[in-house]
Every structure is written in structure tokens, then in C-alpha cells.
Design a protein that fits this description.
The complex is a heterodimer of chains A (262) and B (172).
Chain A (H helix, E strand, L loop, with lengths): L4 E3 L4 H7 L5 E4 L5 H6 L7 E4 L9 E4 L2 E5 L4 H7 L5 H8 L4 H4 L4 H7 L6 H8 L2 E4 L3 E3 H4 L14 E7 L3 E8 L6 E9 L4 E6 L7 E2 L1 H9 L24 H18 L2
Helix pairs in contact in A: 3-4
Chain B lengths: L1 E6 L2 E6 L6 H8 L18 E4 L2 E4 L12 E3 L14 H8 L9 H16 L18 H7 L10 H11 L7
Parallel strand pairs in B: 1-5
Antiparallel strand pairs in B: 1-2, 3-4, 3-5
Classes of the chains: A alpha+beta (262), B alpha+beta (172).
Bound molecules: flavin-adenine dinucleotide and FE2/S2 (inorganic) cluster (2 copies).
């Protein structure tokens, strides 16, 4: 690691101020950032820990929306959304392992926007909203490609808002060594629409599979996507799976998610 | 940076570089070498410790993030003034829950944290229902201990030991 200063502000205002310093960077659970620092792939002048900030905590249903504090750990999301939002709870309960889930946060995962991260698929499928210290950003504007988001320098994710679906599910085809998704598909069914968010597959990061969304809105059944075809063009290809394989998995995982939605 | 860590009930005031992980602080600055470094990247669980009773990977957290926190390491699991082993530790010996022993401190801390989660009624991905009363089936146990890898593959002994300590059947 390169040298950095460390600060743990007790309020959101203090954190925003601390992050105004040049090259200061927010630190959530550190489950991604600390390995990155160890590999010397980041060189912040200062780390601003968000762990002590009460405003970033709390998971609550507000009418037909679920609000998750940006500092909520994956473990808290898994436990506290069970019975409210089955698909999100399932997703959180399968991120990493229990020790990772006790530290890693939803804000950290969405800010990082790893092309194989799980939460982006849920945010995209629900067309949820990222709330920051300055504004609200709709899912489709928020994600801007691999490890890239609409967040400005020093902007903090304070909460995430998910419109609550009638039914939902997440299917993750695990890369067996890392347990990150090789392809993950989140399906959310609403009264008038269906959302399908796909992670791990595209070279541009998470995307909504719009053809499937339309087909499923008419008939929410696995067969509804039988005649659709996912192109391998623009899909990621690596030693774990070719572009064609990932494209194939998108459809398979979508069908499984629809079949399992509850 | 000045940091106070409460480790196994004793306060330690340290002046640390901000880059020192909790794991390195324990091993290199305090001589508590029970916690092991396997991967240093959050993947093996050898460095698992309890912070406020919750298991975390000490290699993926900075010591300065834990100013004022209560930390329990494998050295602190033995109970009582005589340092007698905890029921879980005794069960690991009874059931031969190790070969080389490198993963054992992490397994012990993780299982201690896991039994606490179970007592508090935390569900896992493998739980069929949500009544807060979870039996440690093989599936539950594998899921709940999935962060701790044993390179010697002593899982039958580890599982039996944890079940035994949990008061469940010591099935193998
Ligand atoms: C062994 C292992 C397995 C994993 N498996 C999975 C998996 O299966 N699926 C998956 O999705 N993820 C997985 N992860 C990643 C994990 O979910 C991380 O917790 C997450 O990606 C980052 O969250 P964090 O709170 O730890 O963020 P940090 O590592 O602290 O920060 C990550 C980035 O986000 C920024 N940031 C943090 N919080 C905020 C905020 N509130 N507002 C703005 N910016 C912020 C930081 O500046 C940094 O750039 C795994 C990690 C490990 C170590
Ligand atoms: S050394 Fe920390 S998880 Fe491997
Ligand atoms: S006993 Fe050798 S790694 Fe587990």
C-alpha cells in the first residue's frame, strides 16, 4: 500500500468535508478497497471511513419502496429484507461468505460497480434509485460501464431505493473459485412491468435485457423467453467462460429466475 | 496514528502506520500469532477474528478502523482464569478437527461467531424457513462455515466438532 491518512468522521457533513481534500477516498467495509490498496492499484491521499456515520445505516420499507442505507452490510440486507424483498435478501445472503458480509456494504459495492458485482443487477431490474449527499440518480443513468458510475468525486451514496416488486428472484451462476457471478440475473415482477437485470456478462457492465422484459410483461413464465436470443457480441470472454457461453447463460439464468420468483 | 484496541479483554495502546491491517497489528505488533495469514485477500478465513462478537477477516481491515473495538482472537477463546479450553476447542481435539492446524484458529473464531449468530436466530441462505430455530444440518453448516477453507480437508472432523459443541448430534 502507498501511504495515506485516515479519518473517521461521525456525521455525513463531516465526511463530505473530509472528502473535499484532493485524492481523498471513501472507505466502506474495505472488502474491495483494501485488496486494491494492497495491490497498489489505488493511491488515495486520505481514507475517510464511513463506518461511524449513523445517517448511512438503516433498512426500512417506505410504502412501496425499500430504502437501504448506503452503509448497510450485506449481512444486514440479507436478514432485514427477508420477507419484504425475497430476491434482494437472497442476493445479499450469497455475496462472498459470512465474514465478508459482516463488513462489505451496499454503497461500497454500487460505488465500485465491478462488472461481476451482484447488487447492480437488482438495482437495474427494479429501476431503483441511488441517493447521494447531493442528488438522486436513476439506475439507468447511474451505471456507466465497467467500474464507472455517475458519481462525482467525493460524492457519497447515502441510501438506495428499490421499488418493491410483487415477485423477484436472483440466479447466480457462480465462478466456483471466487463465488462471484460468472453471470447473474435478477428478475423483478411488478403489476405493469417486469425488470431483468444482468451482471457478469457484458463488457459494458450491468444491463437490462429489454426484449426479455417485454416478453415477460405479457407472460411471466420461463417459456416466454424461449424464442429470444442473446448475442455473444460485446459479452466478456475469459478463461472462466467464452462470450458465447455467457450469452447462453443469460437466457438460462433468466428462465430459472422467473421459475423461482416469489 | 494512535489507536486503542481492546483484545481479549486487555487494552492495547498502539501507534500504528495507517496501512497496518488488523491481522498484522495482532501478529507483528502484539505478538498474538494465533491468527494466521493465508491469502491476505479475504478468501481463506485463516485470519478470522471476532469484533464485537462478529466474525470478520482481519486481513481485510485496517487496525486504525478499530479504535475502541472489542476484539477476540483465538488466544482469547479459552475460558476462565485457568485458561481452560472452550467446549468448541475441546471438541476440535476430540473429533480430530485438524491436521496441520493452520486454518484452525480461523475455524475456531468463525465457528464461535457462527454459534452466536445461530443463538440469535440469524437465518442463512440454506435455511428453509425463518422461525429462528435452525438445526445444524450438513447444508446449514457448510453454508455458515463457507468462509473458512481447510487445505488439509479436515471437514468431517471440523463439522463433527462444531456440531458437538452446538449440542447437536456428533454425526460424521
Ligand atoms: C472473498 C470475497 C468475495 C466476494 N464475493 C462477492 C460476490 O459474490 N458478489 C459481489 O457482488 N461482491 C462480492 N465481493 C465484494 C464485496 O461485495 C464488497 O463488499 C463490495 O464490493 C465493496 O463494499 P465495501 O463496503 O467493502 O466497499 P469498499 O471496499 O470500502 O469500497 C469500494 C469502493 O466504493 C467506494 N465507497 C464505499 N462506500 C461508499 C459510499 N457509501 N458512497 C460512495 N462511495 C463509496 C470506495 O471509495 C471504493 O472506491 C466479495 C469480496 C470478497 C473479499
Ligand atoms: S488471510 Fe485473511 S482471509 Fe485469508
Ligand atoms: S488443518 Fe491444515 S488447513 Fe486445515
Amino acid at each position: 500500500m502507498y501511504a495515506f491518512e485516515f479519518e473517521r468522521p461521525g456525521s455525513l457533513d463531516a465526511a463530505v468535508k473530509a472528502l473535499q481534500e484532493e485524492d481523498a477516498q471513501a472507505l466502506g467495509g474495505g472488502q474491495t478497497l483494501i485488496p486494491t490498496l494492497k495491490q497498489r492499484l489505488a493511491m488515495p491521499s486520505k481514507l475517510v471511513s464511513l463506518k461511524g456515520i449513523a445517517e448511512l445505516q438503516g433498512i426500512a420499507q417506505e410504502g412501496d419502496v425499500l430504502k437501504v442505507g448506503g452503509g448497510s452490510t450485506h449481512g444486514a440486507v440479507a436478514r432485514e429484507t427477508k420477507g419484504i424483498f425475497a430476491g434482494l435478501s437472497l442476493m445479499a445472503s450469497k455475496i462472498g461468505d459470512p465474514a465478508v458480509r459482516n463488513r462489505g456494504t451496499m454503497g461500497g459495492s454500487l460505488a465500485n460497480n465491478d462488472p461481476a458485482a451482484c447488487y447492480p443487477a437488482a438495482l437495474m431490474a427494479t429501476r431503483g434509485t441511488v441517493v447521494t449527499n447531493t442528488r438522486e440518480i436513476a439506475a439507468e443513468e447511474y451505471f456507466q460501464g465497467l467500474f464507472t458510475t455517475a458519481l462525482e468525486e467525493g460524492e457519497i451514496i447515502t441510501s438506495i431505493r428499490f421499488p418493491l416488486p410483487e415477485k423477484s428472484n436472483y440466479q447466480k451462476f457462480e465462478q466456483p473459485a471466487s463465488r462471484f457471478p460468472l453471470v447473474g440475473v435478477f428478475v423483478a415482477k411488478y403489476g405493469d412491468r417486469v425488470g431483468v437485470g444482468v451482471t457478469g456478462a457484458s463488457e459494458d457492465g450491468v444491463f437490462a435485457w429489454k426484449e426479455a422484459e417485454e416478453a415477460l410483461a405479457g407472460n411471466f413464465a420461463p417459456e416466454a423467453v424461449d424464442d429470444l436470443w442473446v448475442s455473444a457480441e460485446g459479452m466478456m470472454s475469459d478463461l472462466h467462460g467464452t462470450a458465447e457461453y455467457r450469452a447462453h447463460l443469460v437466457k438460462v439464468m433468466t428462465k430459472r429466475a422467473v421459475a423461482a420468483a416469489e | 496514528m494512535q489507536t486503542t484496541l481492546s483484545i481479549n479483554g486487555t487494552e492495547h495502546r498502539l501507534d500504528l502506520d495507517t496501512r497496518v491491517t488488523l491481522l498484522d497489528a495482532l501478529r507483528d505488533h502484539l505478538g498474538l500469532c494465533g491468527s494466521k495469514k493465508g491469502c491476505d485477500h479475504g478468501q481463506c478465513g485463516a485470519c478470522t477474528v471476532l469484533v464485537g462478537g462478529r466474525r470478520i477477516n482481519a486481513c481485510l481491515t485496517l487496525a486504525v478502523m478499530h479504535d475502541g473495538d472489542e476484539i477476540t482472537t483465538v488466544e482469547g477463546l479459552a475460558e476462565g482464569a485457568d485458561g481452560g479450553l472452550s467446549p468448541l476447542q475441546r471438541a476440535f481435539i476430540t473429533h480430530d478437527g485438524f491436521q496441520c492446524g493452520y486454518c484452525t484458529p480461523g475455524q475456531l473464531c468463525s465457528a464461535t461467531g457462527m454459534l452466536g449468530e445461530l443463538a440469535e436466530g440469524w437465518p442463512s441462505h440454506a435455511s428453509a424457513d425463518l422461525d429462528g430455530n435452525y438445526e445444524l444440518s450438513q447444508e446449514e453448516l457448510s453454508e455458515r462455515m463457507s468462509g473458512n477453507i481447510c487445505r488439509c480437508s479436515c471437514y468431517p472432523g471440523i463439522n463433527a466438532a462444531i456440531r458437538d459443541a452446538a449440542g447437536a448430534e456428533g454425526r460424521k
